[in-house]
Amino acid sequence: MLRHLVIDRVIIEGHRFEELMRDDEALEDFIRKQAIGVWHASCTCRMGAEDDPMAVTDAAGRVRAVSGLRVVDASLFPCVPCANTNFPTLMTAEKIADAVLSPR
User: Under a CB-based contact definition with an 8 Å cutoff, are residues 37 and 28 in contact?
Assistant: First the structure.
């Protein structure tokens, strides 16, 4: 009984579950109001070769034409990995941390 009360009053915010399952318009309205995007932003500061016109950063995460600024997150990826972005982001951060600590 408590589970149904929580679902009806909190999770589906006043709509009755049975109503949503019977009424396609109510279900669509609910989904349009409640659905949000949950993703990890990535690929906005692409890492790439010097001659890559789409690359914003070099292999050490340095932002081109901006002195002293590095990017160390998933925005460096040239394309979204076919996996959760957590581990590739950690590996990228480790790689860039090594570049910062051991400059060539």
Answer: no
Indicate the SS3 state at residue 91: helix
pTM for this predicted structure: 0.57
- Active-site positions read 40
Residue 57 confidence (pLDDT) above 70: yes
- End-to-end Cα separation, the chain, in angstroms: 65
Q: Which residues of 16-48 are buried (b: 16+ CB within 10 A; e: fewer)?
A: eeeebeeeeeeeeebeeeeeeeeeeebbebbbb
pLDDT tens digits, 58-95: 989 999 999 999 999 999 988 888 888 889 999 999 99
Phi, psi of 72, deg, nearest 5: -135, 65
The token pair at 57 is 């950063």
